[in-house]
Amino acid sequence: MNELVLPNDTNTLNNLMGGRLLHWMDIAAAISAQKHCNRIVVTASVDNVSFKHSIKLGDVVTIEARVTRAFTTSVEVRLDVWAQNVPSGTKIKSNEAYYTFVAVDQAGRTIPVPSLEPETEEEKMLYAGALRRRQLRLILAGKMKPDDATELKALFVAEHK
User: Fold this and answer.
1) Which one of 2, 7, 107, 161 is most buried, counting C-beta atoms within 10 A?
2) Domain residues for 144?
3) 156 pLDDT exceeds 80?
4) 14 with 93, same domain?
5) Mean pLDDT of the chain
6) Are residue 61 and residue 95 in the same domain, yes or no?
7) Domain match, 78 and 43 both
């Protein structure tokens, strides 16, 4: 998805407002999730979004969104945000984030989503990490006990044989 940063999108320093970027990111992520699920999806969570580089008035913002893993009724979407100054030709990565979407029917009830089979090495790495990120989200939301997060615990607890 591409957007041009216009005056109405900026703060008094002529930088893109964070809220506007989050809005664009949510749209790009939702489109990716809906294409995978072929269903209506709703945003369930947004992971930490840090602003590494400011995006300036007149920059072209490119948001790349892709589903990294499908669970029972939800999908995780990875976003990479790039800012390009067209006249100078410079392009920098500004942000990255993970959004989670839940597929719903017309009555708003959750419904199963299609599975996802990673193919490339990068896709396999993102797919494997998605389970740990999901467990962390659930713990932070109070929906999972830390002791039940086996994939996440494996990062911190060494096996004793």
Assistant:
1) 2
2) 117-161
3) no
4) yes
5) 93
6) yes
7) yes
Same-domain status, 159 and 85: no
Q: How far is CA 50 from CA 15, 93, 122, 123, in A?
A: 15, 12, 22, 23
Global confidence as pTM = 0.89
User: Are 96 and 120 in contact, with CB atoms under 8 Å apart?
Assistant: no
* Concatenated DSSP letters of 24-83: HHHHHHHHHHHHHHTSEEEEEEE------S--BTTPEEEEEEEEEEE-SSEEEEEEEEEE
Judge if 76 and 137 occupy the same domain: no
DSSP state letters, 98-142: EEEEEEE-TTS-B---------SHHHHHHHHHHHHHHHHHHHHTT
Q: Render pLDDT for 71-116 as a digit per residue (tens, 0 to 9).
A: 999 999 999 999 999 999 999 999 999 999 999 999 999 999 999 9
> Is the domain of 107 the same as that of 52?
yes
Domains: count for the chain? 2
Instruction: Answer yes or no: are the C-beta atoms of 113 and 63 closer than 8 Å.
Output: no
For 80, list phi and psi in degrees, rounded to 5: -120, 130
